[in-house]
Amino acid sequence: MASAQFTLSGTVTDSQTGNALPGATVSITKAQTIIADAVGHYQFNNLKGGNYTVRVSFIGYITVNQDVNVNANTTSNIALTSGAIITEDVNVTSTRASSKSPTAFTNLSRKELQKNNLGQDLPMLLGQTPSAVTTSDAGAGVGYTGIRIRGSDGTRINVTVNGIPLNDSESQGSYFVDLPDLVSSVDNIQIQRGVGTSTNGAGAFGASINIQTTTRRDSAYLELNNAAGSYGTVKNTIQLGTGLLGGHFSFDGRLSRINSDGYIDRAFSKLKSFFVSGAYYGKSSIIRVNVFSGQEQTYQAWDGVPADSLAHGNRTYNELGYINSSKTYYNNQTDNYTQNHYQLLYDQQLGSKLSFNGALHYTKGYGYYEEYRNADSLKNYNVTPVTIGNTTFDATDLIRRLWLNNEFYGVTYNFKYQPTNALNIVLGGAYNEYKGAHYNNIEWTQESTNIPQDYQYSRDDAKKTDFNTFARAEWHPGKFLLYGDLQYRHIGYSFLGFDRNLNNVQQQVSLDFFNPKAGLTYEIDERNNVYASFAVGNHEPGRDDYTSSTPDSRPKAENLKDFEAGYRTTQGIFTAGINGFYMLYKNQLVQTGALNDVGAAIHTNVKDSYREGIEIDGRVRITKQLSWAANAAFSQNKVKNFQQFLYNYDTGLYVETDYKKTDIAFSPNVVAGSEISFRPIKGGEIALISKYVSRQYLDNTSNINPTGLTSAGDPTLSAKNNSYVINRYINSYFVNNLRLNYNFSIRSVKNIGVTLLINNIFSNKYETNGATYADIEGGQVANYNYFYPQAPRNFLASLNLKF
């Protein structure tokens, strides 16, 4: 028996909550030290039989030494108790799912995120999580990027940073380009799919992304990250921290710069950011101040590439900024925005059973996008036509700037009461205010129009208040976990919009939402559990839905009833989960596929629609060196009784087409991801990362073979290429990336990390996003399709130095 080889594994959890403690340090006598993974699991392989002492430590907890006798494959689960210094996890646990919560979620640790953090935006680093589809306007993952989860776009994905809302209050999207390289200051991320737990900010209609930034490090550090790659992409990051000073204080800082030319023509990005954090650790309290900022300038690529350009093989064509008179492009057709964030976070242990955490926050954003307009009508700008000589000009080339100057501030709070190990209750909420000034200026005109410099032709001052309060409880009677969550949310919104008489006047709307949630988990044994839950979500329309409508035509708020059920297992070298969902919508705002003149999607209410599917994810260690992680989502996403209206240019009337049941736009039936990792030597890893996304429709008609070609139809095109022009969908795609990492150390450097990431190794031609404009011309349906092609084979290489 002494020569036999055994496995010792287990899970590290919080003794009171049962929550996993990812990142806990686990060591045993006569063997190595390892770090618990994203679900708190640890495992030692190839151990000889005998007695071992397992030592487990984690910041904010009392270190545990536990004696274990190993004479077979052994499981030893270890629960840690909060120590003299409380942990900062209290900042986010109030709105996060625990390891046994009846909710579908994925945790990502800093270590996992940093493997791929070579300059691409945060959505691209989340692309391998279940049901996720990522997009990049510039085609190379830098600049404007986005993520859809279960087919829901960024306006329906709730994003918080340390529990503070990040979504824009009006458009409700999260623009990660405004905070470049944020992931370098992130400690961990939890993604919840579906309605999830109660959170702050916009309602979660597809998912929630809960981000926790830098937390305490006990030792001083200096880290330099430099990366470079295709399309002129360069990233430079410096991070440093003091560690814990005098047992109470710590300071951390980061400075980043990212530049990229982009794959699409002129789609460059010039991005800068910084992050500064200071904290005080008391015996029963933590105070942390975060100040972080991002500045971006990107050349506009948000209209995509016209279908006829793709069909002719021009995959990088960008028509934005074209100047007709000179047949050149305007070099400042750019988006420019700066966003500054200030956070004051406070955690207080009020006793052995009660704790409090709260935050004050303030965000200031300002910037504009500038564009060249060819022969634009002066009446669009409230400018009187001018006569020069014998010629009257009612249109001219001009340059305009569309400004946004906004601020967002408020308070969040949570009380957590845990009278016994089997029961915990959270009472929390938030109050936030948003003020946004939208104003538009003319900077230059080709023809003299006698307007003053920076002539302001329109202005809209908006204000939004958002209050919510919730109570949540988890009770553990025996092997059961009973979960209940009640949230009330009130929204007040003032904006400039059309009244019933088509006068553009300031208006107010008031919305009240009640969002109950309930669930049950049954722990079959310490390795297996099953769960089921029901949740209600409500979601308000966005700014454009209000400002571009009257009270009679204004879209209604959306309602979602979300049913989830699943099974999770942890079997030493194998972990897996399966989750089924049925999301029933009432008055869902679905995308028509069309875009307005700033690239925003147009939505319309549909009475009945649903998403139903199964998500599977798992990880297996095949050998000591070889492991495989994979996930797949299979779904049906349907609209019932959808009515499409196409404008007929021949008659000047709208033509209605009724559809009984069709696919929801941008909702693929299959999304799958895979990562095969091989570690041939200590510190070295080779990973093959694969992603498959099935067909996505550009609108809600499931249109494949329309009658007639577009007005841009070209009979010389092959049938295959012509599909770009005549069909309103994005082709399925299967893309593979290769990542090579090697980490080692020398005497004066704690770690030297070298990474090479080769994206799209087979150089597939594929698109991840698109838009369509359909009408009727000459008795035929004409489709004007636009797509967002992604780069062929390209690379990023990085050098990381830790001191």
TrEMBL record:
Locate the region Disordered.
Answer: 541-561
Protein name according to UniProt:
TonB-dependent receptor
> Which UniProt key words apply to this protein?
Cell outer membrane, Ion transport, Iron, Iron transport, Membrane, Receptor, Signal, TonB box, Transmembrane, Transmembrane beta strand, Transport
PANTHER family in the record, alphabetically?
Answer: FERRICHROME IRON RECEPTOR-RELATED, FERRICHROME OUTER MEMBRANE TRANSPORTER_PHAGE RECEPTOR
Organism (species): Mucilaginibacter jinjuensis
Look up the coiled coil feature and give its residue ranges: none
Keyword Ion transport among UniProt keywords = yes
Query: Which positions fall inside the TonB-dependent receptor plug domain?
Result: 99-207
The protein's location, in the record's own words, is: Cell outer membrane
This protein's membrane topology, according to the annotation, is: Multi-pass membrane protein
Tell me which InterPro entries the record gives: Beta-barrel_TonB, Beta-barrel_TonB_sf, Carb-bd-like_fold, Plug_dom, Plug_dom_sf, TonB-dep_rcpt-like, TonB_rcpt_CS
Give the principal location in a single coarse category.
membrane
- Domain TonB-dependent receptor-like beta-barrel spans what residues? 287-761
Q: Which family does it belong to?
A: Belongs to the TonB-dependent receptor family.
